[in-house]
Amino acid sequence: MIQRCAGPFILASSLLAGCSDRPDPPSNVGADDPSVGRGGLAAYLNPLDTRRRHALTPLIDAIALSENMDPALVHAVIAQESAYNPTAGSPKGAVGLMQLMPATAARFGLTAAERYDAAKNVRAGIRYLKWLTKKFGHLDLVLAGYNAGEGAVLQYGRRIPPYSETQTYVRRVKGFLAHYRQGQRCRQSQTLLAEVSERRLLQRARVGQMAREHAQQQADPE
After folding, report:
1. Residue ranges covered by each domain of the chain
2. What's the CA gap between 179 and 182, in Å, rounded?
């Protein structure tokens, strides 16, 4: 009975071997990356950003799932855009977790002031990502459109525009996405491991109970 759990237990344990509470930055991120200042690497190295991420994760995940969007993609965009700072702003006028410009926010039903509302900002940003996904279908173009605008992607023949910022943005967000998806797999493995461990404990308890009952029967024959 107990050995039936060995397979899933070994599988979950092997998957967890590569997991950690604070994973390394994506391998394609360097300290000299020109976009480090807009979140990026800081989301992994700055303790304040890490606390923000943990605090905001339930909200972000809930909104993403309600919009049928992969939470890992939303986290990847937020890590790069704002480093999980709800009051972040850019010189160009983008604000909030997903750095919405006034015109983009208005397209998805927000006033300029509502962009500072974390939940509304995230939902509008997700809806923009969904809109871009329907228009372009390819993740690279979706991210390029989010950064440079869909007009720029169309202008260059449905390709990533030849802007260094946009090309770096796409590369970095995809690095974060791979990293967050690794985290999802780790959490799934942890859940599996906990379930398998619980089943093993219950099976051991049943075996022990059966052994005691058998011993009692041997001690008190009819």
Report:
1. 36-191
2. 5
Of these residues, 67, 81, 150, 213, which one is catalytic?
Answer: 81
Question: Is-contact 193 19, C-beta < 8 A?
Answer: no
DSSP letter (8 states) at residue 89: B
Regions of the chain short of the pLDDT cut 50: 1-4, 9, 11-12, 15, 21-43, 45
By three-state DSSP, how is residue 117 classified? coil
- The pLDDT tens digits for 113-147 are 999 999 999 999 999 999 999 999 999 999 999 99
Please provide the CATH number assigned to the domain covering 36-191: 1.10.530.10
Structure tokens at 8: 């899933």
N residues, the chain? 222
d(CA 198, CA 195): 5
Q: Is 198 annotated as catalytic? A: no
Mean pLDDT of the chain: 80
Q: Extract the tokens encoding 26.
A: 């994506």
Instruction: Please answer whether residues 123 and 144 qualify as being in contact, where contact means their C-beta atoms are separated by less than 8 angstroms.
Output: no
Coil, strand or helix at 99: coil
**CA–CA separation, 97 vs 132, rounded Å?**
18
Q: How many CB atoms lie within 10 A of CB 48?
A: 11
Query: Cα–Cα distance between 141 and 132 in angstroms, integer?
Result: 8
Instruction: Bin 84: left if φ > 0, else alpha if -120 < ψ < 50, else beta.
Output: left
| Residue whose tokens read 């059966």 | 210
DSSP single-letter state for residue 4 = G
Cα 41 from chain centroid?
15
